[in-house]
Amino acid sequence: DVKVTQSSRYLVKRTGEKVFxxxxxxxxxxxxxxxxxxxxxxxxxIYFSYDVKMKEKGDxxxxxxxxxxxxxxxxxxxxxxxxxxxxxxxxxxxxxTFGSGTRLTVV
Amino acid sequence: xxxxxxxxPTLSVQEGDNSIINCAYSNSxxxxxxxxxxxxxxxxxxxxxxxxxxxxxxxxxxxxxxNKTVKHLSLQIAATQPGDSAVYFCAEVxxxxxxxxxxxxxxxxxxxx
Lengths: 107, 113
Known about the structure:
Oligomer: heterodimer
Shape of chain B: globular
Structural class of chain A: mainly beta
Number of helices of chain A: 0
Number of strands of chain B: 11
Number of strands of chain A: 11
Helix content of chain A: under 10%
Distance between the termini of chain A: 37 Å
């Protein structure tokens, strides 16, 4: 089975901190995605990557950046965390397989 | 614009009954559709998919029906069990768009014992 691992289940960060969310997949997928999930808004695509060092903006990229230095790892970066970035963050690999999610709280 | 939406935000059924969760989509330029199940505190879990050249696909206790004429997708769960309680999402996939998923908002299924 494909495994998508997100490094943290729960994170609490302070406003203004730089935050790294890591995602690793073990099936050599080219495409990887970062979503955030909020009540009433569903899943919204932040960024995706279809190859190493390649990235494309999703629907809500503002306040985020990503890094894909190796095929198996796709990192989401919050340059300066804000309270409106409190959310559940979900990584997907190959488009269709999701990690367990990281619930980020920014205080 | 592109959108995928669900008819019913909540559904309550009795244990043992069959459940039907519906989904409407607007973008006909899609390759296939996926149903996901998401339990509280977990990521979405793939249930079943169907390609746009099919109208029905069956899995274990689940059946997905696709009606392209009216752009409607449904997930049928047979003999619903308490463990089926979750939020169910449909998603539309366009392979020509880097396999981006277009998501519905979800339907919450509650199974009453």
